Amino acid sequence: MNLSIMWDAVPKLLAGVPVTLQLVSLALLFGFVLAAVIALMRLSGSRIASSFAATYVFVFRGTPLLVQIFLIYYGLGQFPEVRSSIFWVILREPYWCGILALTLNTAAYSSEMIRGGIQSVPPGQIEAARACGYSRFLVFRRIVAPIAMRQALPAYGNEVILMVKASSLASTITLLEITGIARRIISQTFAVFEVFIVAGAIYLVINFLITRLIRYAEWRLTPYLRRPA
Amino acid sequence: MLELLAWGDTGWGDELVRGTLMTLAVALCSFALGQVFGGLGATAKLNGGIVTRAIAEVYTTVVRGVPELLVIYLLFFGSSNAVMGIASLFGYTGYIEVNAFTIGVLSVGLISGAYSTEVIRGAIQAVPFGQIEAGRAVGMRRGQIFFRILLPQTLRYALPGLGNVWQLTLKDTALISVTALAELMRSAQIAAGVTRNPFLFYVLAAVLYLVLTSLSTYAFDRAEKHANRGVRRA
């Protein structure tokens, strides 16, 4: 164990934290929007829309994220048509390819959580709202969405943690986030354990903070479950 | 396109199939190893003393909280050092290389085991304590209680969770490609590099992974049906 290597590695690895956090937060943001669309398609009752959504989820949950990243970064760049299209601005950058792959991946998982949340809303509440003369949109905004969100939050918290860990795969397409930098330091110094400990600790701290945040959000959203003080 | 997938030296069909089998082999061995770690971890968490419980707690927290890739790098770059360190205690100072298959199985097994620990622990706790008391009351020995009451029911309760762990394990084996073990992902990478046809080969890899995951979904569904055949449903 070499403490000075460990100490030197701390600032270098911390420099990768912003990249990791950007990858995760952008992917979660875009992914959530896409997931909501897919969940609504799945529940829309239209056969075409719901089978498209089901296929999407099946494909993205059934294949490793690494394959998805390589397919987007290396696979799409193979075609001259793609390289001359406007999408090339995004697809030639490993950064945006990473975000795209993470977005598509998390959308597949979160859409199922959103669907579960929406389906868990008791039908009686929707009927009650209708009986009060709520429009369809108002029912969704005031009744379905809040209850579904509360129901899906614990599972979504796990998904956020999984995304933090999944963002490490962006290092395979040359992005220097925490794992990418860790790999580089290891190949320069051969101090495997030291670097692993520091990088692992950074990830653990990030994940710990996220679990705390989610737990706080859960606490805020379930005032009726709190014991009266 | 078809000649790219031909069998033998001219095409990549046989490499991909061999890669798929290698993926399956790594996944099966890792999952089996994961069950060993999972069983030990769950036992430690439920029945262990302070020290063993703390070790199990650290194990599951660290392995589940750190990216899989980092765990694989740790074993990939660190295992030779560790093995040589142990060997030097016995007076052997030569270079020892741990082969990629062992590293892969060890690292994915370690990850698989951390998730299995929680699944198995939950399943053991799901067995009603009254049944164990009943076993004691009719004079069963500890081993009998374990094999006749605890184990069969734990298996049934753990099956859905273990199905998820298996899917995770199967997909995590793709990360082993960074150690240059010729599993499915690595074979696709090589083929993509040589033929300059990455799209085709990564799509094929995705399809082969889909085949593996759908087959396992089917197998676990069947197993669950079989395990629950005696359970009355309301």
From TrEMBL, chain A:
<dbReference type="InterPro" id="IPR035906">
    <property type="entry name" value="MetI-like_sf"/>
</dbReference>
<feature type="transmembrane region" description="Helical">
    <location>
        <begin position="190"/>
        <end position="210"/>
    </location>
</feature>
<dbReference type="GO" id="GO:0006865">
    <property type="term" value="P:amino acid transport"/>
</dbReference>
<dbReference type="GO" id="GO:0043190">
    <property type="term" value="C:ATP-binding cassette (ABC) transporter complex"/>
</dbReference>
<dbReference type="Pfam" id="PF00528">
    <property type="entry name" value="BPD_transp_1"/>
</dbReference>
<dbReference type="InterPro" id="IPR043429">
    <property type="entry name" value="ArtM/GltK/GlnP/TcyL/YhdX-like"/>
</dbReference>
<feature type="transmembrane region" description="Helical">
    <location>
        <begin position="53"/>
        <end position="74"/>
    </location>
</feature>
<feature type="transmembrane region" description="Helical">
    <location>
        <begin position="86"/>
        <end position="109"/>
    </location>
</feature>
<keyword id="KW-0813">Transport</keyword>
<keyword id="KW-0472">Membrane</keyword>
<dbReference type="InterPro" id="IPR010065">
    <property type="entry name" value="AA_ABC_transptr_permease_3TM"/>
</dbReference>
<dbReference type="InterPro" id="IPR000515">
    <property type="entry name" value="MetI-like"/>
</dbReference>
<comment type="similarity">
    <text>Belongs to the binding-protein-dependent transport system permease family. HisMQ subfamily.</text>
</comment>
<feature type="transmembrane region" description="Helical">
    <location>
        <begin position="20"/>
        <end position="41"/>
    </location>
</feature>
<keyword id="KW-0997">Cell inner membrane</keyword>
<keyword id="KW-0812">Transmembrane</keyword>
<dbReference type="GO" id="GO:0022857">
    <property type="term" value="F:transmembrane transporter activity"/>
</dbReference>
<keyword id="KW-1133">Transmembrane helix</keyword>
<protein>
    <submittedName>
        <fullName>Nopaline transport system permease protein NocM</fullName>
    </submittedName>
</protein>
<feature type="domain" description="ABC transmembrane type-1">
    <location>
        <begin position="17"/>
        <end position="214"/>
    </location>
</feature>
<keyword id="KW-1003">Cell membrane</keyword>
UniProtKB/TrEMBL annotation, chain B:
<feature type="domain" description="ABC transmembrane type-1">
    <location>
        <begin position="20"/>
        <end position="220"/>
    </location>
</feature>
<feature type="transmembrane region" description="Helical">
    <location>
        <begin position="98"/>
        <end position="115"/>
    </location>
</feature>
<keyword id="KW-1133">Transmembrane helix</keyword>
<protein>
    <submittedName>
        <fullName>Nopaline transport system permease protein NocQ</fullName>
    </submittedName>
</protein>
<dbReference type="GO" id="GO:0022857">
    <property type="term" value="F:transmembrane transporter activity"/>
</dbReference>
<keyword id="KW-0472">Membrane</keyword>
<dbReference type="GO" id="GO:0043190">
    <property type="term" value="C:ATP-binding cassette (ABC) transporter complex"/>
</dbReference>
<keyword id="KW-0813">Transport</keyword>
<comment type="similarity">
    <text>Belongs to the binding-protein-dependent transport system permease family. HisMQ subfamily.</text>
</comment>
<keyword id="KW-1003">Cell membrane</keyword>
<feature type="transmembrane region" description="Helical">
    <location>
        <begin position="20"/>
        <end position="43"/>
    </location>
</feature>
<dbReference type="InterPro" id="IPR000515">
    <property type="entry name" value="MetI-like"/>
</dbReference>
<dbReference type="InterPro" id="IPR051613">
    <property type="entry name" value="ABC_transp_permease_HisMQ"/>
</dbReference>
<keyword id="KW-0812">Transmembrane</keyword>
<keyword id="KW-0997">Cell inner membrane</keyword>
<feature type="transmembrane region" description="Helical">
    <location>
        <begin position="199"/>
        <end position="220"/>
    </location>
</feature>
<dbReference type="Pfam" id="PF00528">
    <property type="entry name" value="BPD_transp_1"/>
</dbReference>
<dbReference type="InterPro" id="IPR010065">
    <property type="entry name" value="AA_ABC_transptr_permease_3TM"/>
</dbReference>
<dbReference type="InterPro" id="IPR035906">
    <property type="entry name" value="MetI-like_sf"/>
</dbReference>
